[in-house]
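MODEL INPUT / OUTPUT PAIR
PAIR INDEX: 1
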Amino acid sequence: MFTKISHYSNRIAEASCLLLLMAMTLATFAQVFFRFVIVHSLPWSEEFSRYALVWASFLGASIALKRGLHIGVEAFVIRLSKEWRRFVYLATLAAITLFLIVVIVKGIEISLFNMRQSSPAMKIPMGFPYLAIPVGSLIMVIHLFDELIMGWRQKEELMGMEKVEREKRVEAGF
């Protein structure tokens, strides 16, 4: 069940990132066009691009986590036996999950607190840009739960962190 939820939330995050980056590019291009050709700049384009970049960053972090492309230091873990590597891997996933749960709770608090303030140019509640923090973190927690469940069930196969960089890049489509 978590595998399907993880898969679909990743697909939504990928599509959202694509749309956000395209919209950000168009808004920036429109700003340049309006400023230098029409000589009247758009007041909202810089703010929109900034908030779109924030959302794309947090959604992109969840995509990278799903693909196993976050940086990791394996110098010590490689020297451990299979059993200890598996234990360290699962403990690391659990620790990251606990950290992200705290980030989700605090991110929701910050978002709700900032709903009373509106952005200067677009006049939207400032809680919406801050909402990227708990949303991106929630998607990462879903991916981590999926990896934890799969890692707990699998005894012999390699898990995400144990794969070599080449295998991660092939799975990610690079």
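PAIR INDEX: 2
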Amino acid sequence: MASAQTAQPADAGVSPPASPRQLRRQDRRAAQALRHRDPGAMALVMEAHGRALLGYLTQMLADRATAEDVLQQVLLEVWQRGQSYDPQRAGLLTWVLTIARSRAIDELRRRVPEPVDPVTLAQERLSAPESESETDQLLEQWRIAGLLARLPRDEASLLRLRFYDGMSQSEISQQTGIALGTVKARMVSGLSQLRDLLEAEEGVRTSA
């Protein structure tokens, strides 16, 4: 399993920015479509969170083709369980990523070679604190990545350098050629917007 430390969405900056209000509205539309078995529900889910889902699965499984196959399983399960989705318990992004986590673990369990009992070995590995911690950290990092993709490009690119590459503000300034004061201002703005998006994603349950 790839380390959660390296999680970074490819080309995430190309996604159009979304305000917290837009995020809540987009998730509400998708949740309502799922509850009503609307044929367009899955398109709404993919539009909102498809990139984060595929990125998470690709890193979790270390294989793009397998990740795409598992993504189809995830979408099928999202559709099948859509009527029972409760926005009061979790935001849509958190909910679909949690389903993706379960299906990815199922896929990893199937990879255990014979003659070792695959179920037993997988359970032993997955029950280890470090394995659970790494899996949960990876899910959370891709949840953040999915929200970062909604920020304006300038703010998002700097936050990725800070979060994923561990660079200081001074190092970011040196690498990008952006004045240090501008780097600081953009990071403050980006963090504020990210906090609002996190609250909106988690708070969709109070306004759906």
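PAIR 2 NOTE: The domain at 15-152 is CATH 1.10.1740.10 (Rna Polymerase Sigma Factor; Chain: A).
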